[in-house]
Every structure is written in structure tokens, then in C-alpha cells.
Amino acid sequence: MASNPVWVAAALMVVAGFSSFAAGEKAVPCYFIFGDSLADNGNNNWLQTVAKVDYSPYGVDFRRGATGRFTNGRNIVDFFAEYLGFENYIPPFATATIIDTLSGLNYGSGSAGILDETGAQLRLYVAGARKIGVFALGQIGCVPFAIRRYGTNGSASGCAEALNDAAVLFNVQLKSAIDQLQATLPGAQFVYIGSGSDMLMTVRRKDPTTLSGLKALEVLDSPCCTVEAESGQCVPDQPSCPDRSRYVFWDWFHPTEALNSLTAAAAFEAVRPIVAHSSSVGERSMIRLAAAVQAS
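C-alpha cells predicted for GDSL esterase/lipase:
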């Protein structure tokens, strides 16, 4: 029996302007998310870790406040859920119910992925995952922490270019691995999401031919909140900058909702072709996939 297609997004890095494919109708049956703090929407609240942001001013622009998202509002996977037509954002695995499983789960976890990646993609494929988007690594040399820690050595970009060069090398190998999986797993559709990974450099260049929202992002290297020197996270209960739409970064590591919106908008174009013709998926298939994820 042919496997039903299931959407899986791997948010490895860390987007508003798209409507869903049809009003009131999801473009895909379910949406599973894997990644780090750029995708985390509450999993770390339940873990013994210092990488935890369930306090103000995180979430100052999110309708439910500080939920554990490492930004002031929505993150990139939230925007993707909107673009795909989901009524609600994908819930964190840590608090999800069996019913939630039918629409997907978010396994993103700040500082590290919850899952061991080794072999996980093959188990997901066997369980029914067929549409998999993988984000390229972004320009990590342009985050405030990297600039503060390593300096720019006078680079024209104003970033720590040695780290950006390392990210480029990583992405070359990542693309090769994705191509290999595409060639060896029948029926699977892998998408390497490179568009969006260079958004930080695009913002710095202020290219007038790119997204119009770039013009508003004027503060490139400074965080919007008061930052703890050791962790790089926002100091609890301290006020943030008044005009958050002007800032690229929320804390020393994580982008603001404004940059997330632009990044997701660019990145979503890469996955449009594989979501345009998704088939329905039965409850058993989705539960089987969720079980495979939890066993990975």
C-alpha cells in the first residue's frame, strides 16, 4: 500500500504576507518541527536547563505572552503554520495531547535538539514522512554575540566572517546529504531551504530590490532587550526597546519577530512546490509518525 505524504519541517537555524492556500483549509495535513531555540515554542520550559525564556520581556508581542519562544513575538515556524493554513500554532511536544498529534508537534529545544539526528530521518520516512524541508545554517557570524566575542577584523560586512565561512562549508555538506537522501528514498520530497539563510546579510546590504520590510530594520548589532552578560538572554522583567520593528536582534542570539517574518517569507517560497498538492492523511498514519518521532 502506498504511503501517504506527511509534511515534516526541520528548522535547523534559525518570515508577514502570505495567505493560506484556501480559506479555512490547511495546505498540508500535519506539520512536525525539529530544531533549536529558533524553533522552540515551550519545550525548554519543562527541562532542567538555563536556556529557558518563560519570563518577560520574552513574548511581549505574542498574544499569550512569554510562552518559551526565544523572541518578542512569533518565530519562523509560527509563521510557517500560518502560511500552511493551521488555525493554531503547532504545540510543543512537552505539553501536547494525543489530539495535538493529529496536526503535528514541535520538538524544537533551545541549545540542542531533543532528538538524536542519527538515523532519525530514516525512521520518519518508514513511518510515512514524505515532505521534508531542511533549513540551511544562517550567517552565525552576524549575530551580536559572535561580533562581540570574535570581532569583525575590519570585514566589509561588519560580521565575524570566519564563522560565516564555516557556515558556508556546513551548508555545502548539508545540501549534499539532502541530495543523497532524495536519491535513495523513493517518493520522498526533500527541500533544501537556502533562501532566508542569508537574510542577515541581505538586511545589512539594504538592497532596494529585496523585501520592502528590510528598510525598517535599522539596528543591526544591538539587542532590543537588556541582556545578561553571561547567558546572552534578556534580563527578567526589564523593559525592552520601544520600537521593536527597527531591531534585527531581540537578545544576543535570537532575531526579533520583524526579522523572523522576513526570513519566513523568503524561505516559504522554497517549499511552496511540495505543499501545493498534498494528500489527506489518516489518523493512524499521523499517530504512527508521532510514535516514530518519540522513539527516535
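Residues 1-23, 279-283 have pLDDT under 50 and may be disordered.
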